[in-house]
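Morning!

This is the sequence you dropped in the shared folder:
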Amino acid sequence: MIKDYIEKANFEDTGFSYTLSLISGKHKMVILYCLMEFKVVRFNELKRYIKNVSDKTLSNNLKELETNQLIIRKEYPQIPPKVEYSLSNRGESLMGVLEQLCVWGEQNRER
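The structure's back. Tokens below.
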């Protein structure tokens, strides 16, 4: 019986798969966590928070998160340019899940 279900099942059709597609990657969850903690953050602040990330990688991750409507990019017309990132409503709705990951990590961290 289970074998029949597994053969007909398609992981890519699950909500879990969709969520992973939005937040997978080395830095996306860290970016979301940073925005959850600090609300509004500039590019260089994110770079300092994450530490060993290249400008290109961080920029690509931010663009993907923005394309997926999880963050908002606000650009100010000034010189030098000023850009701030924050969570969108959609991104905020994901924070309960991220918060539970934090709780689990604190409870299960080997000391």
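Headline: The two ends are 43 Å apart (CA to CA).

More detail when I'm at my desk.
O.
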